[in-house]
Amino acid sequence: MCSDTKKVSIKRADFKENYKEIHDIRDAVYIVGQNCPYDEEFDGHDENSEHFLATVGESVVGYCRLRMVGRKAKMERFAVYERWRGKGVGRLLVKHLLALLEERKVADKYLHAQVRVKRFYQQLGFKERGGPFWEAGIEHVAMYHE
Length: 146
Ligand SMILES: CC(C)(COP(=O)(O)OP(=O)(O)OC[C@H]1O[C@@H](n2cnc3c(N)ncnc32)[C@H](O)[C@@H]1OP(=O)(O)O)[C@@H](O)C(=O)NCCC(=O)NCCS
Known about the structure:
This protein has 146 residues and is an alpha+beta fold. Helices cover 26% and strands 39% of the residues. β6 (126-135) and β7 (138-145) form a beta hairpin.
């Protein structure tokens, strides 16, 4: 972990109030960065999700979304601006959600990982369940935290 992560804070965001920051990072990381279709990125679930921003001072460096699907918690849209990658920001975001879900005693915690990023989630205790599938034109696999 780089000493830069000591300056990183994770805070809950409001989709309407923080619309620009949330939109900007998802646009840069997913729509521009990974060619995700706009309608799949902004999929209509934002209003019923919780949103989290990682910041350094006034600058947004990362983002993720948390959504309940029935009784299961689905962690989504982990995104770190390119120049901040590899410094532990993504790991902080995942750990923040896991701690929150632990507090809430949510047993089922999962995500759809892009296959090429599996190792990132494996290092954080997630295990693959089932085979690969395609989402937003990218190969994914379901991973659960047990
Ligand atoms: C994936 C992503 C969120 C990781 O965030 P990050 O801040 O760069 O990751 P961290 O610095 O916290 O890395 C934690 C660990 O995971 C590993 N890791 C990070 N990105 C990885 C990747 N793309 N593939 C494999 N391992 C990765 C790191 O090497 C690090 O391990 P180490 O401690 O042994 O060095 C970030 O790279 C990103 O926004 N990527 C583009 C969007 C994306 O693909 N999101 C995931 C969708 S499922």
